[in-house]
């Protein structure tokens, strides 16, 4: 998960985002943003850094702390990523300021490919310990490879409590409604993934609840394609003890 300029390791990401957020707070006008936006990003980054610090010691690296750290990183990146992309591509922002926060000035633009016209064809399975394993193929090529122009796959989740399943019957087959930012209303952003299959811990472990997932391809510049059809599974009643947040990623979605 994460764009190229954000380090993969949590410690590296925390340091990078700290520098990024501090620069925006100290010079919002130079980065053509507002003090309110800078403060929001700084707050999200600070929350991730605190959560990450709790996981440094073996004694405090518990499953709840790791889940909290992972969630805080996703939330921080959701704030940082679009702002970093805006800064990187804005020619009105001085190149030195971009370098100060670890961003390279945009090079001469290549031919714009646009978002893919295909969607991820999802298949999900429930593992014995309650994880959701997600497989994806491209709907046009029917291959595991990402389509041309796609950097990764955005994944969203929706949970229907078992006592409300009847009221929501058939609702996921209707058109997905997006807000002004292009985010599906009522769905939780899980992350951006570049490899498949992978396993995630659903946000609910209540037996009988139904979890649904939708996904879409996204370009390196953040341009999204259309959403896939929802895929749903019911939380099992005989779950094994809770396992890790995510199993090792095995296969790369080769572009």
Spatial order of the strands forming the largest sheet: 4-3-6-7
Number of strands: 7
Number of domains: 2
For the record, what CATH class of the largest domain applies?
A: Mainly Beta
**Distance between the amino and carboxyl termini:** 16 Å
* SSE string, helices as H and strands as E: HHHHEEEEEEE
Shape assignment: globular
Residue share in helix: 25-40%
**CATH fold annotation of the largest domain:** Immunoglobulin-like
Derived from helix and strand composition plus strand pairing, the structural class reads alpha+beta
- By CATH, the architecture of the largest domain is named Sandwich
* Quaternary structure of the protein: single chain
Q: Compute the average pLDDT.
A: 84
Count of separate DSSP helical elements: 4
Biggest sheet: strands, sense, closure? 4 strands, antiparallel
Radius of gyration, in Å, reads: 19 Å
Poorly predicted runs are: 243-252
